[in-house]
TrEMBL record:
It comes from the Bacteria. Belongs to the DegT/DnrJ/EryC1 family. The active site is at residue 186. InterPro entries: DegT/StrS_aminotransferase, PyrdxlP-dep_Trfase, PyrdxlP-dep_Trfase_major, PyrdxlP-dep_Trfase_small. GO terms for molecular function: pyridoxal phosphate binding; transaminase activity. Keywords: Aminotransferase, Pyridoxal phosphate, Transferase. The modification N6-(pyridoxal phosphate)lysine is found at residue 186. This is DegT/DnrJ/EryC1/StrS family aminotransferase. Transmembrane segments: none annotated. One of its GO terms (biological process) is polysaccharide biosynthetic process.
Length: 366
């Protein structure tokens, strides 16, 4: 592809002079697991996010899993979430033996429709799990109010929203616990798998630190059944090099997004909607169109990537066929049939954005 969805090599070239010596130093120091870079990154990330504790782990899926465990969610509990997200959100709920209860999405923001969440609360509901999808914060205040009213935990899926905030309150700092992914293509990504859980609670932080390391506080003394889920030192080196640039990266994503939206007006495309409450950091630029195939083909003909996030809503996935039998979420289904994501990354040039818009315009006007 001439214009890929993401250009990780380009970002690496910009940071090479910083990352390679730090990697070499780490290789020589030979403390590869839970060493000084992990500790430093956790402190730096916590400071940036405005949380008391940031506990890194092996990936974003584990971050959700550990977050649910630390929040005390277990068998028989119901967790309300969105059907329009990556599978990991609901997988994590299944891992702890709880049931994912889906609620349809808002047709503008594509985040969970908070007006419908209240109706889904039952005596079994133990937590709300909103996703800050594509980098736009979910409508968090009504969810916080609802959680407080019913004594529910609020767990934020921040896998796509590092640096997004609501009036200065970072995603991952507003609920009881936040789960992040550092998969390479995320807004803040490392060079392999990585994840992190955030919380303001000392007690949950202590549990999380044990959960990620075999249930142990003191080496070879195990208090609970834990997991092997740690971020390694080399990934922490990468994340420490990138964290100081995250606001700039997100600003550049917003530049690209706004240029796309300006360039795609008048074509009958629903461009991403910013709700004016939270800062959208555009992990993805996802538009809605009735002519998705025409656009995808025209882009592919010009060696321009595009992708469908997500083609099959979670309630229609085979794995949830029993659990979600007979359920239907009309907005989600309509969005899944019409969504198309365009290339977006901080280094994407204005000229490239203009070219993508030109190809789409030509395809639709042909
Ligand atoms: C990427 C992602 C995850 C999982 O993160 P991994 O690091 O890939 O395990 C969870 N939720 C959402 C919304 C994601 O986009």
């Amino acid at each position: 592809m001439r214009i890929p969805m993401v250009d990780l090599a380009g970002q690496y070239r910009d940071l090479k002079a910083q990352i390679e010596p730090a990697m070499a130093a780490t290789l020589n120091a030979a403390q590869y697991i839970l060493g000084p870079n992990v500790q430093a990154f956790e402190a730096e990330a916590a400071k940036y996010l405005g949380v008391k504790h940031a506990i890194t782990c092996a990936n974003g899926t584990d971050a959700l899993h550990l977050a649910l465990l630390a929040a005390g969610i277990g068998p028989g509990d119901e967790v309300i979430t969105t059907p329009f997200t990556f599978i990991a959100t609901a997988e994590a709920i299944a891992y702890v033996g709880a049931k994912a209860v889906f609620v349809d999405i808002d047709p503008q923001t594509l985040n969970i429709d908070v007006a419908q969440v209240a109706q889904a609360v039952t005596p079994k509901t133990k937590a709300l799990l909103p996703v800050h999808l594509f980098g736009q914060p979910a409508n968090i205040q009504p969810l916080l109010d609802l959680a407080q009213k019913h004594g529910l935990k609020l767990i934020e899926d921040c896998a796509q929203s590092f640096g997004a905030h609501v009036g200065g309150r970072q995603t991952g700092s507003m609920g009881d616990v936040g789960a992040f992914s550092f998969f390479p293509s995320k807004n803040l990504g490392c060079y392999g798998d990585g994840g992190m859980v955030t919380t303001q609670s000392d007690a949950m932080a202590e549990t999380l630190r044990m959960l990620r390391n075999h249930g142990s506080k003191v080496r070879y003394y195990h208090d609970i059944i834990g997991y092997n889920s740690r971020l390694d030192e080399l990934q922490a080196v990468v994340l420490r090099a990138k964290l100081p640039h995250i606001d700039h990266y997100n600003q550049q994503r917003r530049r690209v997004a706004h240029r796309y939206s300006a360039g795609l007006t008048g074509l009958g495309i629903q461009t991403p909607h910013e709700d004016g409450v939270g800062l959208h950091v555009y992990h993805q630029y996802t538009m809605l169109t009735d002519r998705r195939e025409v656009i995808q083909k025209a882009l592919a003909d010009q060696q321009i990537a595009s992708a469908i996030y997500y083609p099959v809503p979670l309630h229609q996935q085979k794995v949830f066929a029993d659990m979600a039998a007979g359920q239907s979420f009309p907005v989600t289904e309509s969005v899944a049939a019409r969504c198309l994501s365009l290339p977006i990354y901080p280094e994407l040039s204005d000229a490239a954005v203009d070219e993508v818009c030109g190809v789409i315009r030509q395809a639709l006007q042909a």
